[in-house]
């Protein structure tokens, strides 16, 4: 990771970071002046916004639950399905090994069956209790 690269000073790291992110992530840090101190400010802004293991795992569960149906006999399609399955499953397992896989899967299935207001309230409660990582 760029933050651990001792060969670069923080200004060079910041330039690298700016060139590596796109869309919303880039907009989040694009107006910060490129200085030694602001590299850490930018890094922390990105980590606070995107380093949420629970939400990352939830996105992978959603991908698992929406895998395409193969309607014809095709080794290529089957291989692609298996690869997509394993990619998402491994990402879920890696997100927080202390939480059993079945709990991650079941929680996401449950969350998808409540209304938007309840889901938002649950998210706010989870964040306030530090359950976001």
Could you characterize what this model shows?
The protein has helices at residues 10-20, 23-29, 36-50, 53-65, 75-95, 101-111, 116-128. With 133 residues, the chain is mostly helical. The chain folds into 2 domains: 2-50, no CATH class; 53-128. α1 (10-20) runs parallel beside α3 (36-50), α4 (53-65) packs antiparallel against α5 (75-95) and α4 crosses α6 (101-111). The chain starts with 9 loop residues before the first helix and ends in a 5-residue tail after the last helix.
Individual helix count: 7
Number of domains: 2
What string gives the helices and strands in order? HHHHHHH
Measured between the Cα atoms of the first and last residue, the distance is 19 Å
Helical amount among residues, as a percent range? 55-70%
Mean pLDDT: 89
What would you call the shape? extended
What is the CA-based Rg, rounded? 19 Å
**Beta-strand segment tally:** 0
Oligomer designation: single chain
| Strand composition percent | under 5%
Largest sheet: none
Unreliable runs: none
- Quickly give the structural class: mainly alpha
Question: How is this fold's topology laid out?
Answer:
Elements (H helix, E strand, L loop, with lengths): L9 H11 L2 H7 L6 H15 L2 H13 L9 H21 L5 H11 L4 H13 L5
Helix pairs in contact: 1-3, 4-5, 4-6
Q: TL;DR of this structure?
A:
The chain has helices at residues 10-20, 23-29, 36-50, 53-65, 75-95, 101-111, 116-128. It has 133 residues and is an all-alpha fold. The radius of gyration is 19 Å and the shape is extended.
């Amino acid at each position: 990771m760029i933050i651990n690269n001792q060969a670069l000073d923080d200004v060079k790291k910041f330039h690298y970071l700016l060139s590596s992110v796109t869309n919303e992530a880039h907009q989040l840090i694009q107006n910060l002046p490129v200085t030694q101190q602001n590299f850490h400010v930018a890094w922390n802004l990105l980590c606070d916004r995107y380093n949420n293991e629970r939400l990352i795992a939830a996105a992978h569960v959603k991908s698992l639950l929406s895998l395409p149906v193969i309607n014809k006999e095709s080794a290529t399609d089957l291989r692609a399905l298996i690869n997509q399955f394993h990619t998402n499953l491994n990402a879920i397992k890696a997100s927080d090994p202390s939480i059993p896989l079945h709990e991650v899967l079941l929680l996401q299935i449950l969350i998808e069956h409540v209304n938007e207001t309840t889901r938002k309230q649950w998210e706010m409660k989870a964040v306030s209790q530090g359950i976001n990582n």
